[in-house]
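Task 17 of the worksheet. Students: predict the tertiary structure of the chain below and write it out as structure tokens. Keep your answer in the requested format; marks are given for formatting as well as content.
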Amino acid sequence: MALMDWHTLLTRVRLGSTEAPQASSARTDFQRDFDRVVFSSAFRRMQDKTQVFPLSKVDYVRTRLTHSLEAASIGRSLGTLVGEQVIQRHRLTDFEAADFGGIVAAACLAHDIGNPPFGHSGEDAIRHWAHSADYGARRVAMLSGSEREDFLAFEGNSQGFRIITRLQNPDNDGGLQLTCATLAAFTKYPRESWLGGSRYDGVSAKKQGFTAADRGAFETVARAVGLVPRDNHHAMWCRHPLAFLVEAADDISYRVIDIEDGYRLGHFSYDEVVELFWPMVTDQDRQLPRLQRIRELKDRVEFLRAKVINEVIRQVVACFLEHESEILSGHFDVPLLQELPIRAPLDQLIERARERIYCAPEVVSIQAAGFQVVSDLLERFVQVVDDVAEKGSRASPRSQMLIQLVPEQFIGRRRVPSEDPYLRLLLLTDFVSGMTDSYAVSLYKKVTGISLPGG
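Model answer:
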């Protein structure tokens, strides 16, 4: 298998843009990618999307937005540190270490932008609706191949690719028109949803990274950056090398920081946090007096969290550089965190989080309610849109009324639903998955009559 080439992997070509890449300046093309994501409405909506604790009243606790910002900060460090060494190894005179950091930071910033309301519970709700809902499941069953699997195995990752390349700035070819380097690094799972029953090893094949409707866009990205194909019959490639750093930044962020959030909400004692974090702190003899000088326990937890993240970053960079040739050939396909000397205590973090945080009553109860909200909204609105699509002005008064609650972008031009059943379903999942937690609850109350205007 041929090696991928860094010169091509770091292309500044933008998806959907006919303009030549910008000449080198104080604000690089990859920094522009970061800025375009920051200023997008889809990014702002993540401030009201669940990270772990849904609809939390404690403003310290992370949302999807703050998690994404923190992951981007970690990703920038990872990319820059790797870039310094890769540039020296390959004599990449046209690039700077900051270019690597900029690509990883921008991809990290957008990595959760496609998550539906209520986090992973929202993803589960969409899959459950496609499998089991009375009306929705029958509609999905009429489809085939990747068009059907897009719903049966709905993925926030593929929805994210759809948002940044199509739904955000929909009048632009290519949506936000990010560089193909950033889009490829963003796509941790460079494959379509249906592989004809074939099974592939490796973390990059675990899920899909784009819908059937967006296959052409990703093919353009893959050609531009020179990804290595993995299958002659299906849309599937080896990962962009920097996608491993995007994945690592996300993994570091949620593993370590979920414990910190759990402490602030009382799920862990200070001593339990120390027990989990201290084994990953280096130079303990020097750090112990510094820790003990900190008066507030919450500040000590923040100190430990920072030290742990620094050590994991150091090990991830070393691991990437050790396996760089295998990564460029496509032969390395496991998460970097699985290869670290520090793996055991890192795994302990996620195990304890599952025991004490993810199953906490306030988490489970709201996620269960969110599950109902997301699946019920889909089930109601798909019937409404189908009714209008099939009967037009003869659709029921209820359908003609409720369809007004759906923005034109998620119905079709001039509010006329598409004749293609797949596109109708896809646009509806765009609508529901793009909602914030609060808006989904509010709309659910309105369509079910639980809440009335002025009531």
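Marker's comment: The chain is about 60% helix and 0% strand. The chain has three domains: 8-18+26-47+58-241, 244-356, 363-446.
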